[in-house]
Design a protein that fits this description.
52% of the residues lie in helices and 11% in strands. With 262 residues, it is mostly helical. The protein folds into 3 domains: 141 residues, 3-Layer(aba) Sandwich (Rossmann fold), CATH 3.40.50.300; 30 residues, no CATH class; 46 residues, no CATH class. It is elongated and about 120 Å long. The chain starts with a helix and ends with a strand. Pfam families: ABC_tran. Keywords: Membrane, Transmembrane, Transmembrane helix.
């Protein structure tokens, strides 16, 4: 979607759900406002299939009626498939088809009018109660329909969808990248911690065990020089043991990292 189209649709949905456009983060909104903001995100891209879980919970009757009117418009004018799960039975009168499920079993699936006529009831609550009582009293419950009759197997060609799937993957990666950048920029403390922690670890490592040793005292007992010392030794002129020992000791002292105690 173009940015202008997104802005226009956001404005319409904010007006629909009675939310003010502001710079507040979602985590600073109330519980009801957060649910409405989530609902806006679900509607933003005009999906062909919309699955909603308790979309009208926690809203006032006027807003509930507005939400249902918008969902009906999506179904009637745009052909959107809307699937809703809810415990508010009476508001489901506005649905085309109602499925009553209990303990994972779909007990019936009919239009609201048909269900009311079948059970000679005026309220859908009474119809649902009858099915629940019937389910409790039966010892061997069978589903009114087999799964294969309700959901057709999804048949598609993998080759035909490979290119479009790759395109969608690129868009998803881009969206996730933008999302993570925004999250980091909004949380400066976390951003600083993310980049500062590796540098701090390296600095501590180098300070503790990564530097070269210095001024290490070494006690030496060298029987090769007898009772003498290496003070008169200047350079290696032969392969005599005393010459080799003194050459080695002098090289250590010249490095200034060791203090020799002879």
């Amino acid at each position: 979607m173009e940015h202008s189209a997104i802005e226009s649709r956001v404005d319409n949905l904010l007006h629909l759900l009675d939310l003010e456009k502001s710079t507040h983060y979602i985590n600073n909104l109330s519980g009801g406002q957060q649910r409405r903001a989530s609902f806006i995100v679900a509607l933003l891209h005009e999906p062909s299939i919309l699955i909603l879980d308790e979309p009208t919970v926690g809203v006032d009757p006027v807003l509930r009626a507005s939400i249902w009117k918008h969902l009906r418009d999506l179904v009637d004018t745009q052909g959107t498939t809307v699937i809703i799960t809810t415990h508010y039975i009476e508001e489901m009168r506005q649905a085309n088809t109602i499925g009553i499920m209990r303990n994972g079993v779909l007990m019936t699936e009919e239009s609201p009018t048909t269900l009311l006529e079948m059970h000679n009831a005026t309220m859908l609550e009474d119809v649902v109660l009858k099915y629940c009582l019937k389910d409790m009293n039966q010892t061997d419950i069978k589903s009114s329909r087999e799964a294969s009759e309700i959901i057709d197997p999804l048949m598609y060609s993998h080759d035909d969808n490979t290119k479009s799937s790759q395109t969608r993957s690129v868009h998803r990666i881009r969206a996730l990248t933008v999302k993570n950048v925004i999250v980091l920029m909004r949380n400066i403390g976390f951003l600083f911690f993310t980049f500062a922690t590796p540098s701090l670890i390296v600095a501590i490592f180098c300070f503790a065990i990564g530097s070269n040793p210095s001024d290490l005292g070494i006690g030496i007992l060298n029987n090769e020089i007898g009772g003498g010392d290496c003070t008169k030794f200047t350079e290696l002129k032969s392969c005599e043991p005393i010459q080799l020992s003194c050459a080695f000791f002098n090289s250590l002292e010249a490095d200034r990292k060791f203090t020799l105690v002879l």
